[in-house]
Amino acid sequence: MDVQVEKERGNEENEGGQRTSIFSPQLKAMMRIKKKYLKRSNSVKLAVGSVASDPKSPQTRKPKRRKSRVLFPNDTLIKPKKDERSRAKPFLVLFSVIVFVQVYNAIENLDDHVMKYDLEGLERAMHREVFGQPEALEELMDHLNDYLSTYAHQHPLALSLHGASGVGKSHLGRLLVRHFRSVVEDKLVVHYLSKHHCPLKEAAQHCASALARRITEVVTRAEEEEQIPFFILDDVELMPPPLLDILQTFLQSDQTNEFLNVVYVFLSSLGQSEITAHVLQNASTAGAHKPLRRALSLIHPLWTEPALELIPLSLLEREHIIQCFLEEMTLEGFYPDLSHVERLADELAYHSVAGRQYAKTGCKQVVGKVNQL
User: Fold this and answer.
1) Per-residue pLDDT tens digits for 238-295
2) β-strand partners of 351
3) 136 with 161: CB under 8 angstroms?
4) Distance between CA atoms of 218 and 231, rounded to whole angstroms?
5) For 111, which DSSP code?
6) H/E run at residue 138
7) What is the pTM of this model?
8) Interval 302-335: pLDDT, tens
9) Exposure string for 175-213, b = 16+ CB within 10 A, e = fewer
10) CA 366 to chain centre
11) What pLDDT is stored for residue 96 in this prediction?
């Protein structure tokens, strides 16, 4: 319509402007207003289009869709769908079950190994028959429990017990021999006495060879029966150097597996002066390991082996000597008169330190005095 109006208007002007327009002034005004409106609307559309093309414009951002979360009361029968549950929970439960079963089996295996050797019975017997050595017995049992709880080892267990005369070393060795012979085969427990098996120093090399053969035979038999053999060696201070050399070779970690599953217990009075001085100064054997190892390393390199554990035995106090008298008198059939026992205990020599009395010879003289009754 606008184009047609413009053409007619132009024709009127070309004819010399003599003719008058066919449109009234009101219609012309309405046409001009419409033209301005159309022009303004077109400009607004262009502006909106430019804004919409800008990616940073807030009008172009799509509103985030919030996930609806439905909460169900505890007593409702409506349950969430299975696909909405976490898939990690079943795997976590399965993993927990596997770990529990493995730990349980490991604990059961440890208990089976320890129960086989009846270490609880051994501990009760030692605390009942060995007087005045709670620290040494506790340390001894800790090592035995740790080692005998499994069959595969990186090195043999070597325990070297040291103490002064009369503190119970030999008695402790006999208890160990008696107990382990009752729980394993008798031939897998060797009680080696230096005075008996190698009395002559001239035959030291022959004794060393015989001991090496004996250890090899017992260890080989124990490997066939899947058991751990025990060697209790008493009076080690009397062993000549060739015997100590042989024992040192069996404590190495680069041996075959059967020689790594062995328990050695050495009983010796070596280092008794260092232990005595330490106990008189500290009233305990705690901390005596370092001076004891330092003194023993000067005697033979056997006691420098990392696989060898030192256990010092304490001095016996007067009350322990009284217990020794009561035990010995009961075994000999004497009535244990306490006043008589105290009088016999007073006849022994003691170290008196800080109100305590430590027997110089331990229970060594108890048997002789009871035999004189």
Assistant:
1) 999 999 999 999 999 889 989 999 999 999 999 999 999 999 999 999 999 999 999 9
2) 358
3) yes
4) 9
5) H
6) helix 134-148
7) 0.70
8) 999 999 999 999 999 999 999 999 999 988 888 8
9) bbbebbeebbeeebbbbbbbeebbeeeeebeebbeebbe
10) 43
11) 72
